[in-house]
Design brief:
There is one protein chain. 13% of the residues lie in helices and 22% in strands. By secondary structure, it is of the alpha+beta class. The strands form four sheets. It has an eight-stranded mixed β-sheet with strand order 8-9-5-4-10-11-13-12, with no helix packed on it. The protein starts with a helix and ends in a 10-residue tail after the last strand. It comes from Polaribacter sejongensis. InterPro entries: YHYH_dom.
């Protein structure tokens, strides 16, 4: 009887030992699985070196899985929206300016994007307000103004396709201050995908294989010979503006 009790007790202990071990292993695997889509990087993409350091602070966040861009929103180029007291003020008599000027308006924005864009997910439509940050440090907006088409506010856009109204100074059109019918970097969008000018670095001409978002995969001047997905300003004139929408969407990197 005593031997039977010892055998039974031993079996119970063994059962619980195995059960606890399996439970522990399962929980460990589950934790690993939840992080499987997070790609950790240890240094910023080379394209971030193009950004205006006087306006932006760019750093890795969330353990290297995301990039945070803090910006004053104040660009390093001339505009009528600086106001007459600024050294960067540019007289633009043909612009129907909005009431605000940059020197008295809070233009600061902070965005956090995936360090490695998720290009296997669903597309997402752009919304009003900031959809990205340009290399100048100012915000990028889509092709809408308020709840209407951009046409209604086109007269208020300065020489580089931007204005204030309402909120921060932002670009709607090709920002000619730093990209004008070329392959220059424009900025980073909220899905973590870089936006370039109308021409492609790999062909030195207008790309012909763009998707509906203006994106394709090829080598850029910042990708160290490796093909990567990126957007271009689409080479199609917008309405009567004589210029090109910076980015309409949808995002492909969510």
């Amino acid at each position: 009887m005593k031997n039977q009790f010892i055998k039974t007790t031993s079996l119970i202990v063994l059962f619980f030992t195995v059960f606890i071990s399996c439970t522990s292993d399962s929980e460990s695997d589950l934790s690993t699985d939840t992080d499987v889509d997070d790609v950790v990087i240890t240094e910023l993409h080379a394209a971030y070196a193009e950004f205006n350091t006087d306006a932006t602070d760019i750093y890795l966040s969330n353990g290297g899985t995301t990039v945070t861009i803090e910006t004053t929103g104040l660009p390093n180029h001339e505009s009528v929206y600086w106001g007459e007291d600024s050294d960067l003020y540019l007289e633009e008599s043909e612009v129907a300016t909005t009431p605000s000027i940059m020197s008295s308006n809070n233009n600061a924005v902070t965005i956090t994007v995936d360090a490695t864009p998720n290009l296997t997910g669903s597309t997402v439509s752009t919304q009003l307000n900031t959809i990205g940050v340009a290399v100048s440090g100012a915000s990028i907006f889509n092709d809408q103004e308020g709840n209407g088409a951009l046409d209604e506010a086109a007269a208020s856009l300065d020489w580089t396709g931007a204005h204030i109204g309402p909120g921060v100074y932002h670009y709607h059109l090709e920002p000619k201050a730093f990209t004008n019918d070329d392959k220059n970097l424009v900025g980073i969008l909220l899905d973590g995908v870089f936006l370039y000018g109308r021409k492609c670095n790999s062909t030195d001409t207008y790309p012909t294989d763009l998707d509906t978002s203006g994106g394709h995969t090829s080598v850029t001047q910042h990708s160290d010979g490796i093909e990567e997905y990126h957007y271009h300003i689409i080479n199609e004139l917008y309405s009567t503006t004589g210029s090109y929408i910076a980015f309409t969407g949808p995002y492909q990197g969510y």
